[in-house]
Amino acid sequence: TDGDGLSDGLEVEGSNPTNPLNVDTDGDGLQDGVEDANQDGVLGAGEANAAEPDTDDDGLNHGREVNTTLTNPLNPDSDNDLIQDGPEVDGTNPTDPLNRDTDGDG
User: Fold this and answer.
1) CB within 8 A of 21, min separation 6: which ones?
2) How far apart are the C-alpha atoms of 84 and 23, rounded to whole Å?
3) CB within 8 A of 57, min separation 6: which ones?
4) Distance separating alpha carbons of residues 27 and 29, to the nearest angstrom
5) Rounded distance between C-alpha atoms, residue 67 and residue 82, angstroms
6) Hey, what long-range contacts does 32-38 have (CB within 8 A, 24 or more apart)?
7) What CA–CA distance (Å, rounded) separates 9 from 72?
8) Other Cβ atoms within 10 Å of 13 Cβ, number
9) Which of 23, 34, 66, 87 gives 2 a disulfide partner, CB atoms 3.0 to 4.6 angstroms apart?
10) Residue of 3, 97, 1, 6 lying closest to 51 (CA atoms)
C-alpha cells in the first residue's frame, strides 16, 4: 500500500514486521524496501533492520550513514579505529569515520 517495494503481507506477516502504511517505518530516511534489500520480509545478513533506525547502535541512523557520512550501517566502527562512527561524526572533537588516522600522526 505504501509503495516501499514490500508487499503488505510481508510487512505485516514477515519475520521482521514493518508498517504497510509507512514507506519508512523506522523514520531513518531509507525506505523499508531498500533496507530489506531482497524484499523477503526477513532480516538477513547484510541488511539493515527496517524497523530499527540504527541497527549497529553507533548513534547514526541508517539514512544518515548511507546518504551522508557514507559509513556502514551494519558496522558501528566503519574504519576499525576503535571509535564508533557516531562519536567520530558528532563528538566534541569530530574525526573522519572512514579514516583510521584522521590527523595523520600514525
Assistant:
1) 1, 2
2) 28
3) 76
4) 6
5) 23
6) 32/2, 32/4, 32/5, 32/6, 33/4, 33/5, 33/6, 34/4, 34/5, 35/62, 36/5, 36/6
7) 29
8) 10
9) 23
10) 6
The answer to whether the beta carbons of residues 52 and 26 sit under 8 Å apart is yes
pLDDT in tens, the chain (106 residues): 999 999 999 999 989 999 999 999 999 999 999 999 999 999 999 999 999 999 999 999 999 999 999 999 999 999 999 999 999 999 999 999 999 999 999 8
- Of 29, 56, 30, 70, whose CA–CA distance to 6 is shortest? 30
The half-sphere exposure of 95 on its side-chain side, counting CA atoms within 13 A, is 19
Radius of gyration of the chain (CA): 15
Q: How far, in Å, CA of 46 to CA of 102, rounded? A: 27
Measured CA to CA in angstroms, residue 10 lies from 3, 44, 96 at distances of 13, 14, 38
